[in-house]
Amino acid sequence: MTKADLIESLARKADLLRQRAEEIVNRLFDDIVAALKNGDKVNLSGFGTFSVSERKARTGRNPKTGAAIEIASSRAVKFKASKTLKESLS
Fold it and tell me: Residues 67, 61: contact at Cβ < 8 Å?
């Protein structure tokens, strides 16, 4: 499912104009991103939890040449599925 598919589904199920559904989806995503930028966890009951993971700087290898390279520290998003979501997939 793509973002466009999600917007179409919301518009159809909630009897909304496509523009209004797109605005709702975009605002939802914006709020999730803003919370993650602040270092907060986003817990959607019955779906899962988004959190930010800190990755330390480390030394890596260029797979082509084998030369050592420094990989900078970074932040990444992690998602942990809820028990309800996991069970619904079984």
Answer: yes
